[in-house]
Structure formats: C-alpha cells, structure tokens
Amino acid sequence: MAVIYDRKNEIIQINTKNTSYVMAVRDGYLVHLYYGALLGEGDHSYFFRTQGRAAFSPRMETGEGFSLDDIPFEYPCWGRGDMRSPALEIKNSDGSRIVDLNYVNCEVTAGKPMPKGLPAVYCEDDSEAETLTVTLADKVSGIEVKLFYTVFADTDIITRRAEITNGGSAKCNILKAASACIDFDHMEFDVISNHGTHCRERNIERFPLARGEYKMASRRGASGHVHNPFMIIASHDTTEDNGDCYGTVLVYSGDFASEIAGNQYQTARHIVGLNPDGFDWPLEAGETFVTPEAALTYSALGFTKLSHNYHELFARRLCRGKFRDVRRPVLLNSWEACYFGFDADRLVKIGECSADLGIELLVIDDGWFGVRNSDNCSLGDWTINPKKFPNGLEGVYKPLKEKGIDLGIWFEPEMISPDSDLYRAHPDWCIHIENRPRSQGRWQLILDLTRKEVRDYLYESIAAILRTGMISYVKWDFNRNMTEIGSPVLGAEHQGEVTHRYYLGLYELLERLVTDFPDVLFESCSGGGGRFDAGLLYYMPQVWTSDNSDAIERLKIQHGTSLVYPMSAMSAHVSASPNHQTGHVTPFMTRFTVAFTGSYGYELDPTALSEEEQELVKKTVALYKQYGGMMNSGKYYRLAGPYDVDYCAWCTVSEDKSLCVAGYVLTHVRMYGNNRRVRLKGLDENATYRDALTGDIYTGSQLMGFGVHCPETLEYTSHMWILEKI
Ligand code: GLA
User: Fold this and answer.
1) CA–centroid distance, residue 118 to ligand 1 (Å)
2) Is 365 in the pocket of ligand 1 (CB under 6 A)?
C-alpha cells in the first residue's frame, strides 16, 4: 500500500519504492512533516516541531498554541498568521483576501483521476498508482480544496494538484492557486534551474538559496525559452551520484511560477503552479477550478537518479500514442536545407536523395501555404500554394512514396499574419485589447484560442490536410509570445482568465487532433525549445529542442534538457557545417555523436553534400536505425562537463544493459592537456562488451572502473562508443 493513514496520530504517510512523504493534522491544519528517504513503520508524531514562538505573528484566537508563521503546511494560505507566500489566495465576495483551510477528511483510491481538460501523467491500469485525496475547507467562506496526491511507487514520483470549489453562496475570485507546496524545515539548499533564451535554451544555473523570495516564472503566454517549468532543490554537496535532491515539474505550457523562499526561521518554502501575476479567475457559487499538475520526486542518490525517475515516467506515462515506445523515424527537415526557397521539384529532389541515403521522412517546413515566401504573411491560410505545388501535395507525396519516404509538414496553427485572408475576414480573431495597438512579433499575432469558432477553424484547416492521408508527421510551431493579452468577447470581468483559457483551448484542440489522427507523429516547437514542457509532451512526444543546431552549443542545451525530460522527447538533427547559427565548423561525426542522443534527423540539403559526406549520412542513418531505439527506454548518464571541464561526455544504456552508446566531444583544446579517460556508468559489471565501431573488447567493470581513453586532441572532435554485450 502506497498510502498509510495512522488514524490515531492523524498522520498520513505516502511511500514510493525509495521515498516517503509524510503529513499530519495538527490543530485542524494539514501540516507537512517530511519528504525524503523511505521510512519504515512507526509513530512519526515527533517530526512535528514548532519554534514555540514566532515574533510579531499573532497566534490564533487565544494568542496561545502554535503560530501559523512557523508551521510547515501542505497548502498554505494567507490571512491568519502565516506571513509567507501562500499557495492559495482568494478575493472573497466581501473583498477580503483571507482563506483559512482546515482539514475535513481524506480518502485513498486505486488509479488516478485525471484533471479535466489538462495534460497529466496517467496510468494504464489502476494497479499502477494510488491516489490520496485530502479535503480542506474554510468554514466561513465555504471554499473547499481537494488536494490530490498520486503515487507512482516504481518511479518514486508523486503527482500533486488541487481542485478549488466555491461552496459559498456568492462569487469569489481566485488570485493564486498553486499546484503544490513543499515546506522544508531548513534552507541549506542549492537551487538548480534552467535559464536561457532563443537558441540558448535550458542551460543550467546552480546557486545557494538565500533569504528572500526567488521566482522562476513566465508571463509570456508560454512556458518560454527563458526559464523552464521545473526546479531542483539539492543539498550543497549533491552531485550526479550522491546526495539529496528534490524535483518539481509543472505539467503545463503557459504562464507558470516556481518560487522558493528562505525564511526568517531558516526554513524554506517552495511553491509551484500557475503564475499568479495577472491571474484572476472568477468562481461562481458551486464552480470548481482545477489546477495543472506538478510531478514531484526525491532522490538520495543525486541528480542522475532524479533524472531517471522523470525520464521513465514521462516517456511511458506522459507521452502517449503509437510512437511512444518505438524508435522515431529518421527525418530530414527542409528548414535549414532551403528555408523559404523551395518548390515541389526541389522537394522531390531532396526527398529522393534522402531516400537513397536511408532517411525515412521528409518534412516540408515553413513556406508551403498561402502566398508565403518569407515570414511576413499567410499564417492562418493553411492551403497549399499552387505556384509552388502545381500538382498539389500529391506532386511531392507520390514520387516520394515510390521511393519509400514519408512526408511531414509544418504548421504554426496558433498564429495569424495581419497579411492573410484569415485576418482580412476575421480581424477580431486574435488576442487583443480594443483600442490598443496590436504588437507584432515576426509579423504575426496570436489567435484567440479561448474562442470555439477559432479552434474549430484550426481543426478543420489542419484536418483537411491530414485527411489526405499523405502526411505522417506534423511539426507544430509557435513563434512569438503574448502581448496586449485580452479576449474582448469574454467580457471585462474575465480578462484575468485569458492566458489559462488559451491553454485549455489549445489542449482541447490538440486532444481532438491526436485522437482523430493517431497515425500522425506530432512534434512541438516554439522557435526551437520555447515551449519544451511536460504539458505538450502529453500530446506531442517530441520537441524541436532548439533553433540552435550547432553541435557544440547543443551540448549545454541537451545536458540541461536531460535534467527532467526524456531523451526520446528531444529532437536533435545533424545540420550543415559551418553551422548557420554560430559559424562553428565541426566534423560530421561530432554532429552525429551529439544528435544521436535524441530523436534523430538531418537539417541540411543532402543534394549539396559531397559524395563522401553522403556516405557519412548513409552510415549514420544506418547506425541510428540499428541503435537509436533505446532512446525511448534507455537510461541516460551525464558523465562529464560541459560547464566545468573542456569536454563533455555522456552515455545511454539500454534497459537490459546489453547496449551502451557513449559520446565524447572536446570543446576546448589545452595543448597537451586533453588526453584523458571517461568512466562509463550503468553497465553490467560482470559482462563483456564489444565496441561495434572498433571491435575493441572491454569488461563492464573496466568500462566503469577505469573507463575509456579519449585520445582526441583537436577542438570539436569527438568519439563514440557503441558497446554491445557479448
Ligand atoms: C521556427 C522553428 C524553425 C523553423 C522556423 C520556420 O523558428 O523553430 O525550426 O520551423 O520557425 O519559420
């Protein structure tokens, strides 16, 4: 049993395979007692401790008892003495902001109730998970909160979310509704997060927690390139293989906030959920608001274990559909091959050449629709450009089908170009505020997905192309963030709902499409990785990781991405050299070694390659087809770099430890300083492995104990090992 209720001591304990999470009811409040390594049975009452006194923080009615400012809460509120940041803030019908949640009851059920309209981790069978639901209520206002804790025992993950119901008789407004809160009884932590920008996403930052509030957030109308909706909190000495660390990942694609604060009593409060800035959700009597879900994990064995917990659960119980467990097709994308400079003839040539090299799918990127020859028009007009495609899509599909290569296509459905037939017909369909200018980003505005007629239009436009049966892959892009956020049709009272309603609309549209077109592989993109989040993985099992396709820059991007996202979710392509974004000149095999780490493809014109390079494409396609399947289920290890040393090394090991693919890139040359070895991880120490590329034989214990030599001496050169158990 994953959830144990000690009725006598009013303690609830959740156990996963290696962790425990403990809460209790004290003086009517649901307090947090512990999150950490697995606890055996026992009376945990003594875990509850107060300072006894909280200066200047009034103590309940009598002035006696404990002070709320000093208590670790499960879902804290503001107004009765807890002066820290709350998980829930409500404007009551009388205008006051106070919420006072008391414990009502709890129940345990098999399986997992899913949050309505939102993406979430799921179970395929009720035996996979157990859910604890705790009900809290404010007796005065009638606000009722249900906290859901679902336990995925095998992967050490607990998902949390809340449902807030207005049980009173008048309307109130939710101003903040977090998905989860963890109150720690100390603040001796480092905070680890992703930071970045377009073309430099998800680099890693680590710094010690200080007093005051630190908030990683987005108010961009998207999870964004700048921060990612997860946070890791670790002991100061935690490494890849040792030490405590906690992760919280929000399963959501819009505005989020991940806060952590060091407090006056040397404690820390971590809250994750929707960004409260700008959020205002009116809740009529009897209505319920459902928060997105947060996935929590704890590892006593450092960051690698934490990452593995997320990888395993997200790859298998967040991603869905027929592509979830299989190697993804090796594709070639037309973007860096020709940008807007293509027509059907050129695509057929590229496709035929790709097919000869073994590539399985040609993606027609931006520029096939409306009258679009650059990025300044036609978004919204999702019909084939007859000038570029005189025989329609079929003119490309047919000859390529004969060559055995499938077709994929790019959409940017959520956008509208002011220079488009759609905008001329429906100038009010975009997100906007009446009488204010509409700021354009890349010459485009964002469609108002809170509106059903807009979603229906998009569904029909996309479905018309997919119904032809010619398309087996869709790249779904989103190339600007939101400004002048408003949806006039919703009315003045409801403008604080717009961004969240937008995402509810997007999720509904995606659900319809993935349900109706189960044979299409959807990949999400937002100027690369501007919406690389767990929310979209529920609909689209892979993401274009970054518009920066440079192998050297990708080392940091992929390393940061791997903290919580599975490798199969990470699209990684070999592009031309010199690289179009950075100018770096890198050997072909370095580009391959780096791209092999994710769902694989090419971002170049194969017809422009030398014969020698074409041979390399052939060879690498074949290698990926043979070995790339383990990206869905293999365990990924960050072995070294890329921040602290002049190289980067990693490996992926298949579930049964029979195969390991390891990569090494020398990122900076120090004369005579680069001869080194790297120790691999995760292998069977009693097995013998043969390197499929060189024929060299090693034992598992040698590979993990001594390691492998990395004799490269030239900058940006690399090495790959494909180690098969013999
Ligand atoms: C975005 C994507 C690119 C490409 C272009 C097309 O920037 O990230 O991969 O699809 O749009 O305009």
Assistant:
1) 26
2) yes
Other CB atoms closer than 10 Å to residue 670's CB: what's the count? 9
Q: Tokens representing 299?
A: 């590892």
Q: Domain with 476 in it: what CATH number?
A: 3.20.20.70
Q: Tell me which residue has its CA closest to atom 7 in ligand 1.
A: 527
Percent helix / strand / coil, the chain, rounded to 5:
20, 30, 45
Q: Is there a domain that residue 51 lies in? A: no
Neighbours of 519 (CB within 10 A): 12
Annotation says 375 is catalytic = no
How many distinct structural domains can be found in the chain? 3
Please give the distance, rounded to the nearest whole angstrom, from the Cα atom of residue 412 to the centre of ligand 1: 9
Tell me which residue of 499, 534, 506 sits closest to 159, measured CA to CA. Answer: 534
Q: 54 in a domain, yes or no?
A: no
Q: How many CB atoms lie within 10 A of CB 183?
A: 22
Q: Per the structure block, which two tokens stand in for 533?
A: 């989040």
Candidates 477, 680, 721, 701; CA nearest to 593 is: 721
| Percentage of the chain exceeding pLDDT 70 | 98
- Pocket flag, ligand 1, residue 603 (CB < 6 Å): no
Nearest to 329 by CA among 616, 628, 654: 628
- What pLDDT is attached to residue 65? 67
By the 8 A CB rule, do 569 and 314 touch?
yes
Phi and psi at 628, nearest 5°, equal -70, -15
User: Token pair for residue 306?
Assistant: 């934490």
Section 227-253 average pLDDT: 98
The model's confidence at residue 307, banded by pLDDT at 50, 70 and 90, is very high
User: Does the annotation mark 43 as catalytic?
Assistant: no
Of the two residues 524 and 61, the one the predictor is more confident about is 524
335 lines ligand 1 (CB under 6 A): yes
The predicted pLDDT at position 55 comes to 77
Q: What is the mean pLDDT of residues 386-412?
A: 98
Q: Which of 547, 550, 605, 684 is catalytic?
A: 547
| Residue 499 domain flag | no
Q: What angle do CA 596, 597, 602 make, to 5 degrees?
A: 40
336 and 271 together in one domain? no
- Average pLDDT of the segment spanning 544-570: 97
Please give the C-alpha separations between residue 250 and each of 178, 213, 337, 345, 510, in angstroms, as whole numbers. Answer: 10, 19, 35, 44, 19
Which strand (E) or helix (H) includes residue 574? strand 570-575
> How far apart (Å, rounded) are the C-alpha atoms in residues 148 and 131?
7
**74: Cβ below 6 Å to ligand 1?**
no
DSSP state of 68: G
pLDDT of 280 reads: 98
Q: Whose CA is nearest to atom 1 of ligand 1?
A: 527
What are the two backbone dihedrals, phi and then psi, of residue 236, each rounded to the nearest 5 degrees? -60, -30
- pLDDT over threshold 90, residue 60: no
* Share above pLDDT 90 across residues of the chain, in percent, rounded to a whole number: 94
Centre of ligand 1 from the C-alpha of residue 442, in Å: 11
Task: Name the band, by pLDDT with cuts 50, 70 and 90, for residue 558.
Answer: very high
- Between CA 614 and CA 595 the distance in angstroms is 17
- Does residue 251 share a domain with residue 119? yes
**475 and 538 in a common domain:** yes
* Same domain as 335, residue 301: no
Backbone angles phi, psi at 148, to 5 degrees: -105, 125
CA dihedral 566, 568, 570, 571 (to 10 degrees): 180
Q: Which domain holds residue 682?
A: 639-725
**Is 601 a pocket residue for ligand 1 (Cβ < 6 Å)?**
no
Same domain, 411 and 555: yes
> Is 453 a domain residue?
no
CATH code of residue 682: 2.60.40.1180
pLDDT of residue 63: 57
- The protein residue with its alpha carbon nearest to ligand 1, atom 11, reads 527
Cβ–Cβ under 8 Å, residues 158 and 74 = no
Number of H helices, E strands in the chain: 12, 38
Instruction: Output the 3-class SS for 327-372.
Output: CCCCEEECHHHHCCCCCHHHHHHHHHHHHHHCCCEEEECCCCECCC
Q: Is the whole model's pTM more than 0.85, yes or no?
A: yes
